[in-house]
Hints:
- The chain has a single domain, classed as Orthogonal Bundle (Recoverin, domain 1), CATH 1.10.238.10.
- Helices cover about 60% and strands about 5% of the residues.
- The protein starts with a helix and ends in an 8-residue tail after the last helix.
- It is mainly alpha-helical.
- It has seven helices and four strands; from the N terminus they run αβαβααβααβα.
- One calcium ion binds next to strand 4.
Amino acid sequence: MKMWTAATLACGLGLMATGVQAADRARAFMLAYDKNGDGKVTEQEMYDSRSRAFNSFDTNDDGRLTQAEFNATRKEGMARLIERKGTDISFDRLDKNNDGDVTREEYLDFTRFFARADRNGDGALNKDEVGRLMRRGGGNAMM
Ligand SMILES: [Ca+2]
Ligand SMILES: [Ca+2]
Ligand SMILES: [Ca+2]
């Protein structure tokens, strides 16, 4: 009986940990992209933020991010909230043609992510919509 309780508790804590992490990621996402603070992230807000982010990541201004440039930036800011092993997955996902660099076009290509996340189709993402996608493991490349 005691063991059963312990196992149940461990299982419950595990689920909780997963939920908290997804919630943290969703919160970080909103913090990063909801520039006017209305609780919604529009495609324009995402485009503007990612465009600015790309420029600051691209330290040698050649319009491409190398893995090194990408990793250097992710040590700062919201990236701290994500476990380190997420880094390579994100870079690979962003590098759509797998040539080892993430171009500006690749970095700003989030149309599919946006459409998938926008469950109620209002053209904006709220915390719940983002959280739902994060819990399913989506959105890594958007952080
Ligand atoms: Ca907004
Ligand atoms: Ca590429
Ligand atoms: Ca929505």
